[in-house]
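Fold tokens
===========
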Amino acid sequence: MNDPEEIYRLLAQKHGFESSQTYLRVLRFLITPVQARIAAGLPGDAGEIAARTNLDLSLVRTNLEELLRKGVVVPRDYSNPDYFIFCKYAERLWEVSESLEGLDIYTEDEKRQLFFLWEDWKKTDYADMTARRWHDLKRMGINGLRIVPACKAVKDLPGLLPYEDPREIIKAQPLITVVSCSCRKHKKMIGDPCKKSDSDANCLQFARSAEYSLIRGHGRRISVDEALHIADRNEDEGLVHQWMNTARVEAAQPYALCSCCRCCCTVWHAADIRDVPNDEVFAKSRFEARVDTSLCNGCQDCIDRCQFDAIDMVKVEGERKLKAGVDPEKCWGCGVCTIACPTGALTMHTVRPPEHIPA
């Protein structure tokens, strides 16, 4: 197979997007025609790919190294990167190919072009795919992601479980790296910067994700203390923690403690584009914000912080000022409103049992 367009469609098909013109445009940018032949010949080592494609061995090696830096191919063994596979999922490819901190691959104009190509895909074919996925998972009663409350909001509550405490999640990981948040970087590059945070390198990677970020070069190994500091800063800036919805504290392979926002998170944003409700995307935490109206001064800081549209200013009998009111149906228990409340009127309360979190 030597026709470049046929090869690009084959690669897109591996990710379920063979009919997506937006995805094909991304692949044409990321992968040269020669590299497409190499990627289509995977999995294998350089010698095997050279034999399958009738390409020069040194050319294959050089291009595999470049494809690794681009995020298109992944080593099977990170400690001995000589056998490669094509990136398994489209979502992983966009996340990695947009995480470029410390990598000198593209000019600024090329970066901008890449990010706009991904934007075209994200708001169309990706949004359609994720909407179908969330609807299917909802029918099966599955939530893959769960909101993890801000540590500062729940640290004094009794019965806090390790896998719902961001600090305990971080402490349990044997390897941690920090990378540039692809979602936030993406929005900044297309001219719509994050409304919550201007921090760049604040995405914590664990397990195989951390190993991969080191071998590729887009991540920096950090200590537990630095990771805790980053998590604290993320909470202070109003970012919401997300974790896998299981009763485990060890990272899946691969995984990250995602701290993001509704305006930037690619998953969340895509769901909003297709009007997918929050309960199809995230499971709630076991907690809920409540208001002591006698302490509320009506500042409305909590409204700006809430990313689930759960807080409104309401009339309280006997009060002249409007006070904050939390809709429990809309509250996902992230807690970022409570840590910004200047009077302590907002506090978190445990409203669901430990069994709420699947084993």
Observations:
- The CA atoms of residues 284 and 332 lie 5 Å apart.
- Residues 108-139 form the longest helix (32 residues).
- The radius of gyration is 22 Å.
- The chain has three domains: 4-88, 143-283, 287-356.
